[in-house]
Specification:
This protein has about 280 residues and is an all-alpha fold. It has 10 helices and 2 strands. A two-stranded parallel sheet has the order 1-2. α1 (about 1-20) crosses α2 and α2 (about 25-55) runs parallel beside α7 (about 190-205). The protein is globular and about 65 Å long.
Length: about 280
Amino acid sequence: MDIVLDYADAALLDKVYSNFAIPRDNIWRQLVSLLTIVNIGGFLLYIIPASLSYHFLFDKRHLNHPLILKDQVRKEIKYALGSIPYMSLPTTAVFMFEVRGYSKLYDNVHQFRLGWIAVAFQIVTFILFTDCFIYWIHRGLHHKLIYKYIHKDHHKWKVPTPFASHAFHPVDGFMQSCPYHIYPFLFPLHKFTYLFLFVFVNLWTISIHDGVYSVPAVMKPFVNGSAHHTDHHLFYNYNYGQFFTLWDRIGQSFRTPSAWDGDSPLAQVLQNGNGKANGHKAE
C-alpha cells in the first residue's frame, strides 16, 4: 500500500501537507492519508465494477424473482456504503503496519533469484492460502452462535445482484478479508503483485454475485463461481468456498449448483413465463 501512498503524496498530498510542514514519514500523516485512500478506494473498487457488472452482465430478469426484495438494489448499495467506512478502520491499521515496514512485501522483482517465477509462485500460493482460510472463516460465520449477529445480513439477498458483493456487516467483511492481509506478513510478496491481487479479489467477489452461471466445462469441477455462490445464498449451508470447490468437498459442504440442473433463479423466472417464479425453499 505504500506504492499507492507514495503516488498520492506526489500527486496531491505533499501540497496539502506542505501548509503544515508535516513530512511524509510522519505516522499521523500516514494514518490520515491511508484512511482517506482506503475509503475512496474501497468505494471506487465497489461501485464502479459492480455498476458495470450490473448493467452489462447481470440479467435484469432476475429482479422478477419472488425472493428479490423490494428496492433490493438500492438497499444493497446503501448497506455496502454504510459498511465500507467501518471496514476501513481495521484495514487501515493493517496497511499502516505494511507501510511502516513490518510485512514481507518487497519492491524489486529481481530481489529473489527466480524473479518472475517467484512472483508466479506467490500468486498461486496467495490464491490457495486465502481460499483455504476464507472457507473456514466463512463457515465459522455460519455457526449458530455467530450467524445472526454478523453474517445473517448478507443472506438477506437470497437472489443477489452484483451490488450485494460488499453488502455485509463490517465485521463480516473484514474477517473474510483477513487472509489477504495475513499472507504478506507470513510470506514474501511483490508489492505490485499484491495490489493486482487486491483488485482481483474485489472483482472476483463481485463476479460470484453477478448471476452469470457459465463456467468452461473443464473448470466446472474445480472453480467456485456465481452458480455455486447463488446456491449458498439460497440454501445457506453449502458452497462456502471463495475461488475453488476443494474445501467444500473436503468439508462435505459442496452442493452441485442448481443452475447446472436447469433450476437457477433465472430459469425459474423464465419457466414461469409471466415474470414471476416459485421461490426456493431454504434449508
